[in-house]
Design a protein that fits this description.
It comes from Ciona intestinalis (Transparent sea squirt). This is Self-incompatibility-linked fibrinogen-like protein-B. Keywords: Signal. It is a single chain. The chain has six helices and 49 strands. Strands 1, 2, 4, 7, 9, 11 and 14 form a seven-stranded mixed beta sheet that branches. Strands 18, 20, 21, 23, 24, 26 and 29 form a seven-stranded mixed beta sheet that branches. Strands 25, 27, 28, 30, 31 and 32 form a six-stranded mixed beta sheet that branches. The longest helix has 7 residues. The protein is elongated, with a radius of gyration of 48 Å. The relative contact order is 0.06.
Length: 653
């Protein structure tokens, strides 16, 4: 509803002074001014005059409309700071006037025409300019809202005719409507930009709102083109590293090496530097003290460039070089053949980091067979560099040459001559059933080795047995059904019938040899006096084969149970023992030195393993079952089964 002001009520409130209205409310509101009635006009002690005083902002405009545009009804006087703007005596009397800045409107009705009528109404218009409150990027399509408050419902009644424009600071004005308008703009230059929204009346009155917006460069690898300047660093020699990038604005830059950090920022925007794509140099003093704390070697140096709208991180490697001296290279005198690997050991007594090139040449003609490259990045790594490789053919001689260099030095060395010879890598012995005194049994020997011929000697209970055999394939197929803690695909099975004459723990010592080397091993067996009730144990893991197969995946929890087969109930005590062994692959034998303590909950023949009980990797789980006699408590029989599980690397939560 419009607000009404009557002349009488205004004058009664302010008998001794002219009524003053200071407009500061920014909301649009129509105010109506009424003339006094006849009775009020006849009061001689009250001046019949309304004074409306305004002090408007640049973004505000007063539009006043006279309902009875005649000096016979009212006297009108508009006083501006610079003088009289309008007198009623001027003709013709305008129906609508618009003003801004600081001014006073004096309205006096003619006493002879006092009537309770609306003689004038006015509204206060104000511009709307809404910008993002945060800095924007030079690649961003910025949204800007501009308009006049609530003008739609009053434009016609007040005969408002405004022409509005929007200036973005970096181009010519754009004409916009008086109603709320959504505009889009992309700033071509970073820096501060003034956005100006202006509206003009035909009379010349204008409202203007001006706001500041900050545009910042969008930082990325294409715009920055960051590169490090080539530099050679000698350990404990002061030097300054240089990093170059194309000028952008604004930028906060930091260079970090371990705990040492250097930061800087751009002070002010330069149009010339931006348009010329000038190259900026970021220095990093690599002082003697910094080098002492970091040490020689390769070090990660991180460069951060950021502003309020974007950020880029670069990772570079800086070489702090120490002179290389005294290289040594060694390998075994006899090495295996493909697909098995042998190890080359390289030692740098002094110096790092180092690019290392390894060449294997035939001996004596020096024909190059293979070449490998590696890097040692710090003193500890360079003390021992191990490279695994393989050679195709047995019975040939070779020599390894090693070349090492960094940015300030180089050195080389050669190994002794070595020969490729079929090798034995792993042996596992078991039997095809319980062992009884004076009863023949099959000793099952699984051998993993290179293709070639070998001689094996078995020694037990003062007996010796010679067994020649040949490995003619890398992969093998077995149907023996033995319980094995490994995948037997890469093992050759040798069966040999033997007879033990004594009971209790019996040890078999053995060796496998060829013309160049000997592989020694041994195993213990329990020889029983008579059959016992314990026949077998089987871990319930879904694997139909007795040898381990595909690993079980351990997600959060895994429950393994063992089924024990007994042929009778004479044995009084059954004991369960769970063990785990870390292995690199399913074909690797579990060894005592690789045993890992199980942290899971164990309930005799059942174990609950949770994901945080074991580190990520492959594990062989062994269940060993033993029975004890009633009288002597000695172990009378044992049975084992194995399962393979995989603990995956868990994602961070």
């Amino acid at each position: 509803m419009p607000t009404s002001i009557t002349l009488c009520s205004l004058l009664i409130v302010a008998t001794m002074l002219i009524i003053q209205v200071i407009v500061s409310d920014t909301s649009t509101n129509v105010v109506e001014v009424y003339a006094p009635v006849v009775e009020e006009c006849n009061q001689t002690n009250i001046p019949n005059e309304i004074s409306l005083e305004f002090d408007l902002k640049d973004k505000q405009m007063l539009v006043i409309h006279f309902q009875n545009a005649s000096c016979q009804n009212v006297f009108i006087n508009v006083q501006l700071t610079r003088g009289t703007q309008f007198l009623c005596k001027q003709a013709p009397l305008k129906t609508t006037l618009s003003f801004n800045d600081r001014f006073t409107v004096l309205i006096s009705p003619q006493p002879r025409n006092c009537k309770n009528i609306v003689i004038a109404s006015y509204i206060l218009l104000e511009t709307i300019l809404i910008l993002p409150t945060q800095p924007v990027s030079t690649r961003e399509n910025v949204t800007i809202y501009a308009g006049i408050t609530d003008i739609g419902q009053y434009a016609e009644s007040f005969a408002i005719n405004l022409e509005c424009s929007l200036t973005f600071g970096d181009n010519s004005p754009k004409t916009v409507g008086i109603h709320d308008s959504k505009m889009y703009h992309i700033f071509g230059l970073p820096g501060s930009h003034y956005i100006t929204f202006s509206c003009h009346m035909p009379s010349g009155s204008a409202v203007t709102e001006r706001k500041l917006i900050q545009a910042e460069s969008w930082l990325n690898e294409d715009s920055l083109k960051m590169i490090p300047a080539p530099t050679t660093v000698k350990f404990l020699t002061d030097i300054t590293l240089m990093f170059l990038y194309v000028y952008q604005y604004p930028i906060i830059s930091c260079i970090v090496l371990n705990d040492n950090q250097v930061c800087d920022r751009t002070e002010s925007f330069s149009v010339e530097k931006f348009e010329r794509k000038e190259v900026v140099v970021m220095p990093y003093p690599l002082t003697n003290s910094i080098q002492s704390s970091t040490g020689p070697g390769t070090h990660l140096i991180t460069v951060f460039l950021q502003n309020n709208v974007s950020a880029v991180q670069y990772n570079f490697t800086v070489w702090i070089n120490r002179q290389i001296t005294s290289i040594k290279v060694a390998c075994d005198s006899f090495v295996g053949i493909q697909p098995n690997y042998f190890t080359i050991n390289i030692t740098l007594e002094e110096g790092c980091p180092a690019n290392i090139t390894i060449e294997i040449n035939k001996y004596p003609n020096n024909e190059l067979v293979s070449q490998m490259k590696t890097l040692c990045s710090n003193p500890d790594e360079c003390k021992l560099v191990q490279v695994k490789t393989s050679l195709k053919k047995a019975g040939e001689k070779y020599r390894v040459s090693v070349f090492a260099n960094n940015q300030i030095s180089n050195d080389s060395a050669a190994s002794q001559v070595f020969e490729t010879v079929p090798q034995i890598y792993d042996v596992y012995m078991t039997s095809d059933g319980p062992l009884y005194a004076n009863v023949p049994t099959n000793l099952m020997i699984y051998v993993r080795g290179d293709i070639g011929g070998f001689e094996m000697t078995l020694k037990f209970a003062k007996h010796s047995k010679h067994v020649p055999f040949t490995i003619d394939s890398i992969k093998h197929v077995h149907s023996d059904g033995a319980s094995l803690p490994f995948d037997s695909t890469f093992f050759k099975l040798i069966k040999e019938k033997i007879i033990f004459r004594s009971t209790g723990d019996q040890q078999i010592d053995a060796n496998i040899r060829n013309s160049k080397q000997v592989f020694n091993f041994s195993s213990n067996f329990i020889v029983q006096r008579q059959p016992t009730c314990l026949e077998s144990v089987n871990i319930r893991d879904g694997n139909s084969n007795r040898a381990i197969g595909e690993p079980l995946k351990l997600a959060r929890e895994l429950i393994l149970s063992g089924d024990v087969t007994l042929s009778c109930v004479e044995d009084s005590i059954i004991k369960f023992k769970w063990k785990s062994f870390k292995v690199d692959s399913s074909s690797q034998l579990p060894r005592p030195e690789n045993e890992v303590k199980l942290k899971g909950n164990i309930y005799n023949n059942e174990i609950v393993i949770r994901s945080n009980d074991l580190l990520p990797g492959l594990y062989v789980i062994m269940l060993e079952v033993s029975t004890n006699g009633v009288t002597d408590k000695d172990v009378t029989s044992e049975a084992r089964d194995f399962s393979l599980i995989e603990v995956p690397t868990r994602k961070l939560e």
